[in-house]
Amino acid sequence: MILYDDIVPVQIVPQSSDQGEFYDEDYDGFYEYDDIASITTSLSTSATDYKFENGRRYHGYKEGQWPVPNDEKQQNQMDLVHQVYTLRLGGKLYLAPIDECPQKILDVGTGTGIWAMEMGDLHPSAVVIGNDLSPIQPRWVPPNVKFEIDDFNEPWVQTPSSYDFVHAREIHGAVSDWRQFCSEAFRILKPGGWIEVAESAAELRSDDGTLPKDCALNTWLNNVSEGFERIGHTVVVGPNIEGWLREAGFEEIAVKVFKLPVGLWPKNKVERDIGAFNLLNMIEYVEGASLQIYTRVLKVLQTPAAPT
Ligand SMILES: C[S@@+](CC[C@H](N)C(=O)[O-])C[C@H]1O[C@@H](n2cnc3c(N)ncnc32)[C@H](O)[C@@H]1O
């Protein structure tokens, strides 16, 4: 988390209970305390030191970690993803059988924070924390929702054994070591806690075999996937996640596979609605996912020279 490695070493949680009301061994979110307001201010400043390239805006904190923009265009795309997933799950935000009154929920790589905010409304008993490299979440949020600038590829800073639920969605291509990711989640979850990982396949298929493997769309997706792999970020999650979770210590693992249609071809209304949102999502995604990967990683396109 930015607080620990970039700014100043601050002891957020006092070591003894004689520090009065500020003592909180379950502390999990530095926005709660007025006395570190100045630190959060400098955090915000460094995290909003955005980088601009090819007309798009990228995160500033841990620059270069995530080669996808964080501007409004990309935020709209993330909200479309939320719509696709929510429709796919029949209006639900998750499938894990968590307790009715969870107390702590972590949404890693929260993006626009839309899932975390809806989760906060759904579970008023819980504090829902969403973390991300980019501070792009709204300021006016449900009172039980908080956002933090954090890098989930670093050791997690949350109190061990304190969370009921960890949620990770559409972060393939961002995680550098899934084994470490799963064990960090395991470490911060309470015994009996749950993790839900929801990732789409980096592959397009058609039911009737009419989408050739070497069509332009698949060629593009293969190139982008190769680019992400080259920067050390695994994109193939589905077939491996069960093993990674089991190695980390999780039990009772259920893997569910769903179709995510793209386009208006399905006859069934729900599928067609999902397909419509997903088509828009893909159209919005192509440019953002390709620019840095094609210019900086695969080096098949040139970044225009900066004006002199
Ligand atoms: C494709 S978006 C998914 C957003 C959200 N989970 C959703 O489903 O709507 C991936 C998000 O992960 C964030 N991200 C990428 N690398 C990260 C890292 N190392 N630590 C924290 N967040 C990261 C990005 O900034 C982006 O907001």
Taken from the alpha-carbon principal axes, the silhouette is globular
At the fourth level of CATH, the homologous superfamily is: Vaccinia Virus protein VP39
Percent strand equals 5-15%
List the strand order in the largest sheet.
Answer: 5-4-3-6-7
Short structural description:
The protein contains eight helices and seven strands, in the order ααββαβαβββαβααα. It is an alpha/beta fold.
Please give a structural write-up.
With 308 residues, this protein is α/β, with parallel strands linked by helices. It has one domain: Vaccinia Virus protein VP39 (Rossmann fold), CATH 3.40.50. It is 35% helix and 13% strand. The strands form two sheets. Strands 5-4-3-6-7 form a five-stranded parallel beta sheet. The N terminus is likely disordered. It binds S-adenosylmethionine. The site of S-adenosylmethionine has 23 residues, from helix 3 and strand 4. One of its GO terms (molecular function) is methyltransferase activity. This is S-adenosyl-L-methionine-dependent methyltransferase. It comes from Arthrobotrys oligospora (strain ATCC 24927 / CBS 115.81 / DSM 1491) (Nematode-trapping fungus).
